[in-house]
Structures are given as structure tokens and as C-alpha cells.
Design a protein that fits this description.
The complex is a heterodimer. Chain A is an alpha/beta fold. Chain A has helices spanning about 40-50, 75-80, 95-110, 120-135, 135-140, 150-165, 180-190, 235-240, and strands at about 5-15, 15-25, 30-35, 55-65, 65-70, 80-85, 170, 200-205, 215-220, 225-230. Chain A has a single domain, classed as 3-Layer(aba) Sandwich (Rossmann fold). Chain A has a 6-stranded mixed sheet with strand order 6-7-8-3-9-10, sandwiched between helices. Chain B has helices at about 5-10, 15-30, 35-50, 70, 90, 130-135, 140-145, 155-165, 395-405, 410-425, 430-455, and strands at about 75, 105, 110, 125-130, 170, 180-190, 195, 200-205, 210-220, 225-235, 240-250, 255-265, 270-275, 280-290, 295-305, 310-320, 325-335, 340-345, 355-365, 370-380, 385-395. The longest helix of chain B has 23 residues, at about 430-455. The chains are: A alpha/beta, B alpha/beta.
């Protein structure tokens, strides 16, 4: 059984129909990339999967780990192992980065019936994961994302992902706005977290990230439909030809 | 009916007769223990109060705060010290109980030596009861008392002048640094409705001195008591004073207070006003720069729920050039509560290179909570940097979603963001143990607020 199974998903926002029948199946151990131009529905898909209620699901089914994902609240999805790395991580003044992450981590442990980690043990875990991302120590003590540079924000997303250890990671344009060093660090972090029992959905506009995070499958999203799927070589083809040649394809 | 003529006259105090009668009794009795010059001030105070009457909503400064519930109370001024049925253990539950440094305890405005503890003070520092200081340090008190907080246009300050009996007196001589914060604890023990305390505090920090003061107001019992406090703070040249006020009186209580500071050349004054208690709480926080190079920071955090009303009025008077003032006020309003913020910044002619900033942000937790906010600038100089802004809003849905997407439940996310909004102000408190205690207090207080909203 697939980890994530999306069947004929239609969704939109404020009366606008954006996703028009998405079908996608992701197994544990796989990395899937979704590529598409601006406005094709990439971010809508990631927000719907994470449970953002401003987007409404019109029809279709999403099964995650045997459960009806669409019935779960955003926090329940996180408890079940879904993690969304935001395209635009929200700045939250006054909430300490580490305090927030410890609260999130312990909520997930609580859900799994595991004892909560105390401050000392959590700090040890955090230190270990920080090395992975080349994260500056002071980021931990700063308010969540407040005043972080674009690169710091994205590193912080992947750092949170490393700590929360999700089963399904959704990376929404994590590469946008990153310089090459940050891109490498972020990709490196994602690669280190790849295991046979988890999966990733990498959403991106450009092929660049996929040089570092090599996907097993590439899907092209155009006008709310997946119009083409293939292996990693499809990303290179898109890089070369752009998206135009795929216009007017029917949904897969 | 001659309604129009009646309206053009100042509204008489609703039960001014009761106040006059109480003053008469006080003057002929308890007031005789005070020096003659103090009682002269009192007479001026009561006559001013009688002329002004309680403020009505027709006055701009009282437009959003109806004080009728206060004016209609029976008036029982606690002008004479009464035997105190409180023990040190009774006070342990109030904030800052474990604070190092001196603590002065006042019950219904009267100093209670048995509950107070004065630690070793540097040479020349004076700390104690104002009533006692009027005799022992009459010259200093006379030089400052009533010089800063004007009773001319403020009925409650006039009433305080008429009826004050005691309060704190703090004097720090030139160049002396008082390391430990001084805690002034005002306990309102309202045995019956209308019990009124009129604490009067005088803080004088001479040139180059440093001082930290914490003023907290709490209640024992839930009767409709009335606290009408005035604190005058004279900050000398180059001196540095940090003042933190915490108002947590019972929900039956009424609290009106003025903190008036006078800031000499190159001095620094930081004020924090944390207000969570009382049915109606009105705070006037005023600062006048009397010399150049002053830095004045006024911070505030108000939290209200149920039918509470909390009102902050600030006047910052840039009377001299090259001074900076910053005001940061956050309000968190739930239930059917109301918040009022009015900040006036005057930049006088010639007060060039003034840097004045004022920010008021309000978080409404319910549909029924309201806030009236009015930051004001009146600028009569041309080379100035002034900025003001006010916001009223709900919790940020993007932020809530972000936290939830990490596994934090909806309600916990709301609590976390509300506390962060409060911490933003508390983080500015430089007296670390005070900040820490207030942070912990507000965490549980806001937890309860948000749980109430969640039903």
C-alpha cells in the first residue's frame, strides 16, 4: 500500500478551481518531485496536504498511511508524520525557536505514546541535528523566523524537519531564494534524512534543487493537472525545453 | 428646562456633599497630625475637586471611560491607619514576594512597618513612609510634593491631594546606586464598598543616581474598593530610574492612578505599566523633559476580560530639545472588555531633534471586546523624528497554521501566540526577577483567558 495516495483531487480557494483532478501515489522510500510554472497549483497542493482550511477540497480522496487524510486537522497530520517545509516560513515574534520546536516535538511524541523529552535531552537532540544543517547556534535562541534571512528561514525549516523526523516531507519551493551554499546545505540535509521508511514530495519551479536531491519520479503540474510523469531525466528535459511543449495535455 | 445651561457648567461631583463632609471630618480629626503646609495643599485639593467634579464623558480625556460607577460609590476614605489583620504569610501569594531588596507594605494606603522589610541601604538613601518623612525630611518632601503631578485639571489627582494619608518616600542622593529593586506593595483591604485608599508616593533620584522601583497593587476581599494613587518621580540630571507598576486588584475594585515623572538633563527613565486587575482601571502616565538629552521609555501591557475596562492615558512633553521618547503598549482583550489607549506627545517650540515613537497594538480575543486607541502628536518644532501607530486585530491565522502544521494543537497555538504578544512587552523589563515573575504570572493568567474564550 502506498504511503500517500491522491485520487482525483479537486481543490480551490475562494470559488476558484485550482487543482483539477490530481492523481499521485507515493511509496515509502521514494522521492517525488512536482515541477510546474507559477500558478500551476503547486503550492495549493502542498497547503491542501498540510490541512490549510483556506483551501477547500471540492472532491477526491487522499489516503495517507491507511487513513483519510482530509478528515485530519493540521496538527493531527503532523502527529501522523506529515511535515510541510513552507515556501514562506511565518515570522513569529516572541516565540523562541527552541521552545516552539520542543513543544512541537513533544506533542508528536505524546501522540505516539512516548514520554516527553526534558530540556536537557531535547537540547542534545537539537545539537546533533544542527550539525547536519550547518545552523548557527544563535538561531536557536532567537524568536521563530523573526528577522531571519531567506536562507536562514529555509535552513530552519529543514532543521525542524530533521528534529521532527517526518514520514512524509513536503518541500514547497524550498530552493527559492537560496544561494548555492544554502541550497547545498538544505539538499544535504534532505538527503541525510532519506530512509526506506519515509518519503518526500519536492515541489519546485526549477530543476536546480533536483541536481542535489535526486528524485525517483518527476511529475509536471500544469493548470492544476499532472500532465506528465517520468524519471529524474524528465527534470532535465524541462530545464532544456521549458513547460510550453506540455501545454494542452490532458490530465493523467 | 435649562438643560443647555446646565451642560455648559462643570458637572458637579455626584455626591460631592459626601466628599466635602468626609473632608471636614478628616480636617478636624486625623489631618491634624500632618504639618500645616500639607493641610494647606489638601484644602486646595478639595476645593479643586469640588470645582471640577468627577469627570464626565463629555471631557475628551474621559470620552471612553465612564467613571459613574466610582462617583456613585459611597465614599469611605481610609484616612486613618486601622489595625491590620494580615500576616506576612498572607502576602506570600502576591507577586514579587520572593524579591531580594527592600519591601514596603501599605494597607489601604498606610505603611505597615511590621509587614515591611528594609534592607541595608547606601549612605544617604531614605526609604520609608511619606507620612513620617513629612516630619523627618520635611524640607525634601516640601520641595517636591505636588510639584509634578498637577491637580488643576484632574479631579482624581485633586481628590488624592485632599485625602492622601501616606505612601512611599524614596530619596536617593547624588551619584548613589541602589542595586536591588525596591518593592512597594499596596494591599487594598476593602471591608465594604467604597473603602477608598489614596496612596501618595514620592520618589526623588538625585543627579547621577540609579534606582529601580516596583509598585504593585493587589486586593484582599472582593468588595468594590477604590484606589486612587499618585506617584511623583523626580529624576535628576544623568540619573537612571526604572519603574515597574503591576496592577492586579480584585475584579470588584476600581483603580485610578497617575505616575508623573519630571526628567532632568541627560536622565533616563523607563516605566512599565502592567495592568490586569480591577473592574475599571485608569492609568495616567505622564513625563516632562525639563532638560536636554533625556531618554524616556514607557512600556505597557494590559489584559482584560469579562466586563473590565482598562484605560491608559499618556502625555509625554518634549519641552526641551534632543530628547527621545518611546512608548510601546500592547493590549489583550477578551470577553466584553474594553481597552482605551490615548498617547499624547507634545513637541514644544524649540524642542529640535526630538525623537518620539509611539506604538499601540491590540489583540482582540473575542467579537465583543473593543478598544479605542488614539495616538496623538502635537509638534511645534521642525527638525524632529516622530512616529506613531496603532493596530487592532486578531491572532494571525498564518502563524496559527504554521504552529499547527508542526503538531501544536489549535488552542495551544493560540496560547503560544498570545503569550508571545505579551512577552514582547515584558521582555523590555530590565529587572530580571520581576520580568520572570510577571512572565510566569501572565502565562497562567492568559492560559485562563484563552480557555475562557474557548468555552
Amino acid at each position: 500500500m502506498a504511503l500517500l495516495e491522491i485520487r482525483n483531487l479537486n481543490a480551490g480557494i475562494a470559488g476558484k478551481h485550482i487543482l483539477k483532478g490530481i492523481n499521485l501515489s507515493i511509496n515509502a522510500g521514494e522521492v517525488h518531485a512536482i515541477m510546474g510554472p507559477n500558478g500551476s497549483g503547486k503550492s495549493t497542493l502542498s497547503q491542501v496536504l498540510a490541512g490549510r482550511k483556506t483551501f477547500n477540497v471540492i472532491s477526491g480522496e487522499v489516503t495517507y498511511n491507511g487513513k483519510n487524510l482530509l478528515e485530519l486537522e493540521p496538527e493531527e497530520r503532523a502527529h501522523e508524520g506529515i511535515f510541510l517545509a513552507f515556501q514562506y516560513p511565518v515570522e513569529i515574534p516572541g516565540v523562541n525557536n527552541t521552545y516552539f520546536l520542543k513543544a512541537a516535538y513533544n506533542e508528536i511524541r505524546k501522540h505516539r505514546g512516548e514520554p516527553e523529552l526534558d530540556a536537557m535531552d531535547f537540547l542534545a537532540l537539537v545539537k546533533e541535528k544542527m550539525k547536519l544543517l550547518h545552523l548557527e547556534q544563535d538561531l536557536l535562541n532567537r524568536p521563530l523566523n523573526e528577522g531571519f534571512s531567506g536562507g536562514e528561514k529555509k535552513r530552519n525549516e529543514i532543521f525542524q524537519m530533521a528534529v521532527l523526523d517526518p514520514k512524509l516531507a513536503i518541500l514547497d519551493e524550498t530552493d527559492s531564494g537560496l544561494d548555492i551554499d544554502a541550497l547545498r546545505d538544505v539538499a544535504d540535509g534532505v538527503n541525510k534524512l532519506r530512509r526506506p521508511d519515509n518519503a518526500a514530495l519536492v515541489i519546485t519551479h526549477y530543476q536546480r534543487l533536483l541536481n542535489y536531491v535526486v528524485p525517483d519520479f518527476v511529475h509536471v503540474l500544469l493548470n492544476g493537472c499532472i500532465v506528465k510523469s517520468g524519471g529524474k531525466e524528465l527534470a532535465l528535459e524541462l530545464e532544456e525545453k521549458g513547460y510550453d511543449w506540455l501545454a494542452c495535455q490532458p490530465c493523467l | 428646562m435649562t438643560t443647555t445651561t446646565q451642560q455648559s457648567k462643570p458637572a458637579p461631583a455626584d455626591n460631592a456633599q459626601a466628599h466635602l463632609a468626609a473632608f471636614d471630618t478628616f480636617e478636624k480629626g486625623g489631618a491634624r497630625r500632618f504639618p500645616a503646609w500639607v493641610n494647606e495643599l489638601r484644602r486646595a485639593g478639595i476645593s479643586r475637586f469640588t470645582a471640577l467634579g468627577f469627570p464626565t464623558r463629555r471631557l475628551e480625556d474621559w470620552k471612553y471611560t465612564n467613571v459613574a460607577p466610582i462617583s456613585q460609590l459611597p465614599f469611605k476614605p481610609a484616612v486613618n491607619p486601622m489595625p491590620v489583620a494580615l500576616s506576612a504569610a498572607d502576602l506570600a501569594r502576591f507577586a514579587f514576594a520572593g524579591l531580594d531588596g527592600s519591601r514596603l507594605v501599605f494597607v489601604n494606603g498606610h505603611f505597615v512597618p511590621g509587614l515591611s522589610a528594609i534592607s541595608k541601604l547606601s549612605v544617604g538613601v531614605k526609604l520609608g513612609s511619606l507620612a513620617a518623612a513629612m516630619s523627618s525630611d520635611g524640607d525634601i518632601v516640601k520641595q517636591h510634593l505636588g510639584r509634578y503631578a498637577s491637580a488643576t485639571d484632574h479631579a482624581f489627582r485633586a481628590l488624592n491631594v485632599a485625602f492622601f494619608a501616606d505612601g512611599a518616600f524614596i530619596y536617593v542622593p547624588k551619584g548613589v546606586v541602589v542595586e536591588e529593586p525596591i518593592h512597594l506593595l499596596f494591599v487594598a483591604v476593602a471591608g465594604e464598598d467604597g473603602t477608598a485608599a489614596h496612596p501618595r508616593n514620592l520618589i526623588v533620584a538625585e543627579a547621577g543616581s540609579r534606582l529601580k522601583v516596583v509598585e504593585s497593587y493587589v486586593s484582599v476581599g472582593s468588595a468594590a474598593g477604590f484606589t486612587n494613587a499618585v506617584t511623583e518621580i523626580a529624576v535628576g540630571e544623568g540619573a537612571n530610574v526604572e519603574h515597574c507598576k503591576f496592577q492586579d486588584e480584585s475584579l470588584g475594585a476600581f483603580h485610578v492612578a497617575t505616575i508623573q515623572s519630571s526628567l532632568a538633563r541627560n536622565s533616563r527613565f523607563t516605566s512599565h505599566s502592567i495592568s490586569v486587575g480591577a473592574q475599571i482601571a485608569r492609568h495616567d502616565i505622564n513625563a516632562v523633559m525639563t532638560g536636554e538629552g533625556v531618554e524616556c521609555v514607557l512600556n505597557g501591557l494590559y489584559v482584560a476580560s469579562g466586563s473590565q475596562l482598562v484605560d491608559h492615558h499618556m502625555v509625554v512633553d518634549h519641552a526641551q530639545p534632543r530628547c527621545a521618547s518611546h512608548e510601546f503598549f500592547h493590549g489583550i482583550l477578551g470577553g466584553k472588555s474594553r481597552g482605551v489607549f490615548n498617547g499624547k506627545i507634545f513637541v514644544r517650540p524649540g524642542a529640535q531633534q526630538t525623537d518620539a515613537k509611539q506604538t499601540n497594538r491590540n489583540l482582540l480575543l473575542t467579537d465583543d471586546a473593543t478598544v479605542d486607541t488614539k495616538p496623538q502628536l502635537e509638534i511645534f518644532a521642525d527638525d524632529v523624528k516622530c512616529m506613531h501607530g496603532a493596530t487592532v486585530g486578531r491572532l494571525d491565522e498564518d502563524a496559527i497554521f504554521y504552529l499547527r502544521s508542526r503538531g501544536i494543537p489549535h488552542n495551544a497555538a493560540r496560547r503560544m501566540l498570545t503569550q508571545a504578544f505579551a512577552s514582547n512587552i515584558l521582555a523590555r523589563i530590565g529587572i530580571e526577577p520581576v520580568r520572570k515573575q510577571l512572565d510566569e504570572f501572565l502565562q497562567s493568567h492568559l492560559d485562563a483567558e484563552i480557555r475562557a474564550v474557548e468555552g
